[in-house]
């Protein structure tokens, strides 16, 4: 393989995009795991109750809020 | 994760950017699928197999089936919640 192809801006750009997508996927994966543990306390049903579904949504959004709080705190 | 497998031939392979990205995306998808599988196994084992018997009971089997569906649904809910933020 032509080694200079590895330095191409096009490839670097595509790799950066994939890296970002991978980080997002990983965040969703970890958050789903955590929020499942917090919100789905009983045996899984044939659909989520509205309280379970709301809990999952709240869980993700509170995580984002927390993330902001932490960032702000660490930048003080 | 497996290392990339390059096509073997006599002459040096000419890998395009497309080839590299296609291999990368394929391997990433495989890695995600394996990770998801592993997570679902763990969660559903904990939820559904509370008292291991000498075989999987009918209720354990239906619990597992519901568990997989719910976990996939949960993944979608979390994904949507993360990107529908209203501040």
Automatic annotation (TrEMBL), chain A:
Transferase keyword on record: no
Gene Ontology cellular component terms for the protein in this record: mitochondrial inner membrane
Cellular location(s): Mitochondrion inner membrane
Membrane topology: Peripheral membrane protein
InterPro entries (UniProt xref): Tim10-like (IPR004217), Tim10-like_dom_sf (IPR035427)
Chaperone recorded as keyword: yes
GO biological process, alphabetically ordered: protein transport
UniProt entry keywords in alphabetical sequence: Chaperone, Disulfide bond, Membrane, Mitochondrion, Mitochondrion inner membrane, Protein transport, Translocation, Transport
Domain called Tim10-like: residue spans: 15-75
Family to which the UniProt record says this protein belongs: Belongs to the small Tim family.
Domain notes: The twin CX3C motif contains 4 conserved Cys residues that form 2 disulfide bonds in the mitochondrial intermembrane space.
Subunit structure: Heterohexamer.
Annotated function: Mitochondrial intermembrane chaperone that participates in the import and insertion of some multi-pass transmembrane proteins into the mitochondrial inner membrane. Also required for the transfer of beta-barrel precursors from the TOM complex to the sorting and assembly machinery (SAM complex) of the outer membrane. Acts as a chaperone-like protein that protects the hydrophobic precursors from aggregation and guide them through the mitochondrial intermembrane space.
Name assigned to this protein: Mitochondrial import inner membrane translocase subunit
Lineage: Eukaryota, Viridiplantae, Streptophyta, Embryophyta, Tracheophyta
TrEMBL record, chain B:
One GO MF term attached to the UniProt entry: metal ion binding
GO terms for cellular component: mitochondrial inner membrane; mitochondrial intermembrane space chaperone complex
Keywords for the protein's UniProt record, in alphabetical order: Chaperone, Disulfide bond, Membrane, Metal-binding, Mitochondrion, Mitochondrion inner membrane, Protein transport, Translocation, Transport, Zinc
Main location: mitochondrion
Gene Ontology BP term (one): protein insertion into mitochondrial inner membrane
UniProt entry tagged with the keyword Disulfide bond: yes
Free-text note regarding domains: The twin CX3C motif contains 4 conserved Cys residues that form 2 disulfide bonds in the mitochondrial intermembrane space.
Full protein name: Mitochondrial import inner membrane translocase subunit
Organism: Salvia splendens
